[in-house]
Amino acid sequence: MRNAPTILHLDMDAFYASAEQAAKPSLRGKAVVVGGLGPRGVVATASYEARVFGVHSAMPMAQARRLAPNAAYLVPRFGLYREVSEQVMGLLRGLSPLVEPLSLDEAFVDLEAGGVAWDAESARLVGVKLRADIRTVTGLTGSVGLAASKMLAKIASEEAKPDGLVLIEPGTERAMLGPMSVRTLPGVGPATGDHLRRAGITTVEELAEAGEDELVRLLGKAHGHALYAMALARDERPVVAEREAKSVSVEDTYDVDIHDRTRVGMEVQRLADRCVQRLRGAGLSGRTIVLKVRRYDFSTLTRSETLRGPTDDPAVVREAAARLLDSVDTTGGVRLLGVGVSGLADYTQEDLFAQAHVGAAESVAQEQPETVGAVVSDEPAGEEPAVAERHWRAGHDVRHAEYGHGWVQGSGLGRVTVRFETPDSEPGRVRTFRTDDPNLEPVDPLPLVARRPEAAGAGASGAEETGPEVGVAGSSGGAGECSAGREGSEGGTEESSAVRDGASSGTGGPAARAAGSVAVPAGSGVGGAGVADGVDSEGAGPGGQASSVPARRPKSWSGSGGRGPRRGRSGGRAAIPVPGKGVAPRRSRGRP
């Protein structure tokens, strides 16, 4: 192990949720949960605001909704996350040729190999600059750990969260690790932790005192030796720049258990085709076909078959997966299916014995283009639907011909609710449309940070895209209050709109002022409902705050948004006409 803390571990803070908050001004400072929204969905990432309520990664989405019913629940946008990840990895590669990515938001860097750090002070300076560069380039924050080994650097970054930097000086490792839980060490999960606890071992110090022989007796030779070395802060693993993929796989979890054996077989065939598409996309082939089945009782079965040679033929993979399925009992129902290929190679062996005997070569069905905001529903084979129904994913980007760029806040019952705002605008207006509105289309995400400096008055970009109404919804509160700013400051008893220069105005935000208009339609920013081109339009919730759940059709079409009068609420406003200027908000008597 080296004698200087020149191994850096970077872990972005609540990456998916933070990216969504950066892209959506109305969600900044609010609880955001990203993951699968179906009945069996799982939380991928929860913002720190959501974690206060006990929501965490890998939690069932249904449980998260019970803990934080008012959080914003969004479907992941991996296209955006990959783009931001590439920006971050580019910064890391500028520090050293040895960068080992672990996921989209996590990586090790060998600073010594890059010649940018050789002792504790130089490593600390690199870490400080890296965090600043990440914030400048992406608008997000990351936590940095610095130590003499990969294990310690990762532990240091966990200690640094959120948005911090921790450096472990060589020689202090044992003292730092000693009082920590054994679960801190990599490879110690719930089962191993419980096993050690029953043996009276709960801390890393107790683990080291137990001795290597005792750990081997408790956990086996391989695990016991490795765990004892980690307890002594020993880790000789190098940072590896390129880690080859070991397998390619796809899997689906179903909202309702599948009992029909025929449908199970069809799903396996479909997964096999998708797996081959990924395989070919990576320019790979593989020898071992793997089938994964999770049954109704959560028991998981894995079956595999090794071919004579590597293949990327969809017919071969389909037939192998079908043979594997024949050996699995699915009588009670199936909740998850997966197909994978391992034993990867970058070539295909033309071996007749490895290939299935098919009458004609079959090619993989062309994959549907990856949509950002809408998905065309699947129809039963053989039926040609006259018009494909459009489904809109919560959180995904859309553009309206009249109102510009926005994101889907919710959909259902033939309606889709969209909030019109951009990463550099103020919290925007909410409008509801028919799901088949021809003026609404899915689009790619906007960059979180402008790629070039904007000219003076560029704050009007939001107004140019979404009309003069953007930037005025919910603009209440005193000067200097900024509920959606990165500092998360929420002053007073009512939140202001996200005015980036720190000043709020009763006549609209910078976007509206730059557009030369202060018109505020009746009901905007106060949870009111109006009518836009014959389609209902809902406000952003009480006081103009961002609603964290999909907007619903109000019971009443009055200016109160169907919620009744709001008595005694600080910051409440009524819409009054202003000669020559349409409608402008009026402060309640309770506010100066």
UniProtKB/TrEMBL annotation:
It catalyses: DNA(n) + a 2'-deoxyribonucleoside 5'-triphosphate = DNA(n+1) + diphosphate. Its main location: cytoplasm. Residues 7-189 form the UmuC domain. The active site is at residue 106. Its EC number is 2.7.7.7. Mg(2+) binds at residues 11, 105. GO terms for biological process: DNA repair; DNA-templated DNA replication; error-prone translesion synthesis; SOS response. Monomer. Belongs to the DNA polymerase type-Y family. This is DNA polymerase IV. It comes from Streptomyces avermitilis.
